[in-house]
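Tutorial handout. Part one gives the primary structure; part two gives the three-dimensional structure as tokens.
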Amino acid sequence: MPLAPRISAVITGDIVRSGQLSGERFERVQATLRRGGDEIRDRFADCVPLPLELFRGDSWQLLVTVPASALRMALYLRAFLRAGADVDTRFAIGVGPIDAVPTDSIATGRGEAFRLSGEALDWKVSTRMRVAIAESHPDAERDARAIETVLTVLDVIVGRWTGAQGRAICGALLDLTQEKIAADWPDEPITQQAVAQHLSRGGWDGVREALRFYEELMEGENA
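Part two.
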């Protein structure tokens, strides 16, 4: 088994109100999650060593070996689900050491990042996004509180996304130009101006700033 990186991030999530979905709709949600996970691996192959794992029916997990990228990926999955299946997901990111990078399945992974991610998702809080940082990190408590404050505000924006806004934001999260997002729009292309409108109404400027804050903080933690 290959040596593990010093610090990794584990994202654990579950589908909101999954018990209210019909069997057919639930299968569609699972298929959408898998597609979203595949697209993330295609884009971030250097830091996503394994496919997204589905477990307990409505839950999922993703291992990210570069913690600074974890929030972008988790937001991508929220936007992807909103656009492709009209559902939402909660998620928690655990940042800390892992014993080793699993070679076959995330289910075999062990370490503090896995534990923190699972425990954070179980916290009964109003926001659908959580981050837990290992106490071994310098300033872990201060940084976790700062991130939680940002995520609380960000969650209000994300929770209002329409399917079209989620689709546009998926492209923006991958750093695609508005012209590229418009040309790749499902069914038929739309205009760049329409993409800009979707991004504006979806609060993309605020989302981008929240991401920048998280990524800069995480890069500083692991420098």
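Part three, for discussion. The mean pLDDT is 91. Residues 160 and 202 are 8 Å apart (CA to CA).
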